[in-house]
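Tokens in:
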């Protein structure tokens, strides 16, 4: 595992923890700090950074002592990208499945879904 991969993985755990706290308390208070972009993007090409962030979030989520759901995952991935100067969009969708209301969040970066791809089918995007 490269040093950059280790760094992103550790930052993924931190970002997921912050996102979980923000969702439970008040996202408005943390968002300006968490989403503050760098002046310019890292030297890594956007596609490579997206892959690295996607993998890091997946690994971090599997190893957290709590369940991290779609919105904190999308927020954490957005934080990681924004801090490195890369853009992304959080999408919120709603829909019905077997007469049950569903809500879901996913993150899109350059046309690639980084988080939440597994449950977005059949949902109407209400915010992006």
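Residues out:
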């Amino acid at each position: 595992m490269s040093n950059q991969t280790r760094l992103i993985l550790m930052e993924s755990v931190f970002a997921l923890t912050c996102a979980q706290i923000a969702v439970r308390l008040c996202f408005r208070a943390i968002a300006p700090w968490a989403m503050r972009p760098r002046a310019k993007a890292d030297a890594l090409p956007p596609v490579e950074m997206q892959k690295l962030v996607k993998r890091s979030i997946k690994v971090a989520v599997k190893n957290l002592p709590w369940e991290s759901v779609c919105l904190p995952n999308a927020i954490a991935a957005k934080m990681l990208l924004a801090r490195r100067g890369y853009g992304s969009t959080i999408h919120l969708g709603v829909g019905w499945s077997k007469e049950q209301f569903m809500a879901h969040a996913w993150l899109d970066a350059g046309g690639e879904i980084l988080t939440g791809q597994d449950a977005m089918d059949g949902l109407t995007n209400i915010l992006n």
